Each structure stands twice: as structure tokens, then as C-alpha cells.
Amino acid sequence: MNERIKHLLLIVFLWLASAASYAQGDAGATARIDATHITVGDQVRVFIEVHNNASQSKLQWAAIPDTFNNLEVVERGKIDTVKQGDVITYKQRLLVTGFDSGSFFIPSFIFPVIPNSGTAYTVQTDSFRIDVQTVSVDTTKAFKPIKGIIFVKGSWLDYIWYIVGGVVLLLLIIGITIYFATRKKPLPPPVPQGPVETLQEYTMRLLNELDAQSVWQKGNVKEYYVQLTDIIRDYIEARFKTSALELTTDEILYKVQLNKELRPYHSLLSSILHTADLAKFAKAQPLPQEHVEAMEHAKEFVNTSKPVAVTETTPPQP
């Protein structure tokens, strides 16, 4: 009888665990730390790992403040992305320190998840207790007296090598100056004129240079989108002869709808400009995949909007 009860309880436990796992959706968040006791000023590393199924939902990164519970975030690592099929795993490392002694808590970080269909929900990491201790002092021993200043006798021979080095450096500078002053400078060779860039080639070169600078990878997300949107706005003005630099995103998209040539690119431009507005004005932190997609959409817009060359054909003679 006891064996049957144990077996039944095991089945119920497994069913409850499965139901709890299903209720959490297709996303999850974990965190771990490498120390629970530190001295004032020492650092604790916090490792955050979040995953979600990109085909079923969209994950928003948690808003992590610079300070919490007398603890400070002194460094934020970049968000690394690992993709396995449709499941994307994001990882970030934080360096946390404390300058007051006591027991403090690293809070849970909450990540909103927006499914393609259904109700939005959140996943969160565990919280951790950190004990910050002061440097121990042995109060049983007496204070040691302050020692007086000890004067050391010296002579000019102590600086002989500095003197020799200064004389050699002075002679070297004089010799180089005389050499270049008396040397005839040859005329520079003529600079070969390179081929003239088209508007598309010029714009693609600017986009490739911005991509190679790894601006958002270094944490300068706002600067990345400022440069990216400036390049796109300049291209719209030059290619389609319509103002864009001084307009808001909604004004540009309204003009795109009215322009016959620009209308097919409304979706691409909307994705780029709205993501940029979130990063520049809402202080949001788009995910690394969104940074990459913004650059890909910009390049696709420039490549596919090249003007089509029209050649005139002579009608056949009767």
C-alpha cells in the first residue's frame, strides 16, 4: 500500500512540475554570482542568461539600474547572442560592488515577453544576498608611532646618466633638424584620380564603414542610430529629391506613402526609423539582433532603390 501511495505522489509531482514549466511560456531567465561575501570595494560578477523562442515571442531586456540596495553596477558587459534553431539565448555579465558594510540584495531582474499571440508575461532571475565586510583591525595591539622623515644624502653623480641621456638627446635633435633643413624635398607624385562614386556606392560605403566601427557593440547604441538615420535621410533627399533631414519619423513615413517611388520601401524605412526613435528618445535598449536588422534593412533599401537606367531604342526602318 505504501509503495502505491509513493508511486501516485511521484506522478502528481511530475505533472505539477510539467504544468509549471508550461505556464512559464517559451522563455526563461537565470542568474548566478561568483561570490556571496566581499570586502568593501571588492567586486562580484553577476552572470545573466535569458532565452526565448524568437518564432513565438519577442523578448525585451530588463531595465537594470546603476545602483540598487547600496550596491553599484560598475561595469556592464555586452549582450552576447547564441542561436540554436528558433531559440535565442542572451548572456550578459555585470560587475557589482559595495562601499558600505552590511548585507544587501541583488534584486530580481524582470524581462517582459510579448508572444505573437496571447497575453504578454514576464520571466525573472533570482535575487542574491551579498555580505559586504570591512577590513578587520586587531584592536588588541597598540598603535605604532609615526616615524620621522629620513634624509638621504646625494650628489650630482646620482644623476649622471640623466645628464648623459639629455646631452645625447639634444645632439640627436640638432642633427635631425640640420639634416631635414638642408635636404631638398622631392615633389610629391601626382595623386591618381579614382573613379567617381555613384550615390548608391557612396551611401553603401558609409553604411559599411559604420558597420565596421562596431559602434553599438561598444555600448554607444544612441550614437549608432544617429549616424545610421542621418545616412538614410541624406540618401532619401539626394535620391528622391524630397526633404527628410528636418522631418520627424511620422512626417517622413507620410511623405513615403505619397511618393510613388518610395512607397514600396515603407515597411523597411518604418522598421529602421521606429527602432532608432526608441533608442534615441525613449532610452530603450534594443536587442543585438535588432541592431543587425536595422543595418541590413538600410543596405537593402539602398541596394534595391537604385534608379533603373532607361535605354532608348530606335524603331525599325520600314
Commentary on this structure:
The structure is a single chain. The chain has helices spanning 2-23, 160-182, 199-212, 221-240, 249-258, 266-280, 288-304; strands spanning 28-33, 37-39, 43-53, 57-59, 67-68, 71-76, 80-84, 87-98, 102-106, 110-115, 121-124, 128-133. It has 318 residues and is an alpha+beta fold. Among the domains are: 24-133, Immunoglobulins (Immunoglobulin-like, Sandwich), CATH 2.60.40; 199-304, no CATH class. Strands 1, 3, 5, 6, 7 and 8 form a six-stranded antiparallel β-sheet that branches. β5 and β6 form a beta hairpin. α3 packs antiparallel against α4 and α3 packs antiparallel against α7. The chain is flat and about 90 Å long. The model is unreliable at 12-24 and 310-314 (pLDDT under 50).
What's the quick description here?
This protein has 318 residues and is of the alpha+beta class. It has helices at 2-23, 160-182, 199-212, 221-240, 249-258, 266-280, 288-304, and strands at 28-33, 37-39, 43-53, 57-59, 67-68, 71-76, 80-84, 87-98, 102-106, 110-115, 121-124, 128-133.
Beta-strand portion reads: 15-25%
Amino-to-carboxy terminus distance: 106 Å
Structural class of the secondary structure composition? alpha+beta
- DSSP strand count: 12
Q: Estimate the helix proportion, in percent.
A: 25-40%
CATH architectural designation of the domain at 24-133: Sandwich
What string, H for helix and E for strand, traces the elements in order? Answer: HEEEEEEEEEEEEHHHHHH
Approximate shape: flat
Kindly report the CATH topology of the domain at 24-133.
Immunoglobulin-like
